[in-house]
Amino acid sequence: MSDAFAQFEKRLDSLERKHKELAKGYVAKINPDGLITVEPKKGRTGLRLRILAAAIIGFAFFKAVTLAAVGPATYAGRIEALSLGTSFEQACAWIMQVDPVTSQLAGLLLSVFG
Is residue 8 located within the same domain as residue 28? Predict the structure, then answer.
């Protein structure tokens, strides 16, 4: 009797696990024999990576536009003034410092837009 109950509990756990997976989203597919099967949707882990990459590229473009707009001397002066402030301002100054990507993009923007 306990063996039958253990098998029942195992099937019940399997159904609960499948129900939780399908609650996150599912896709219905028709097999070649006409049987309709339901499978959980695959995770979208690549979306977070794309958002992070877009944010980094956007921030680098923002730095390049700022550098091209105010000029290197004024930009460096503002970064130096920022680095003399609080710890948060110092962190922002470190992030906003000119790097090779920013300087290349700023040079490209200046050559294109004059």
Answer: yes
pLDDT in tens, 14-54: 999 988 988 888 899 999 999 999 888 887 777 888 999 99
Q: In the chain, how many domains are there? A: 2
Whether residue 35 is found in the same domain as residue 12: yes
- My answer on whether 32 and 60 are in the same domain is no
| Residue 6, amino acid | A
pLDDT in tens, 72-98: 999 999 999 999 999 999 999 999 999
Distant-in-sequence contacts of 64-68, Cβ < 8 A, 24+ apart? 64/101, 64/102, 64/103, 64/105, 64/106, 64/108, 64/109, 65/106, 65/109, 67/98, 67/102, 67/103, 67/106, 68/106, 68/109, 68/110, 68/113
**Which structural domain, as residue segments, surrounds residue 51?**
45-113
Amino acid in position 34: G
pTM of the model: 0.60
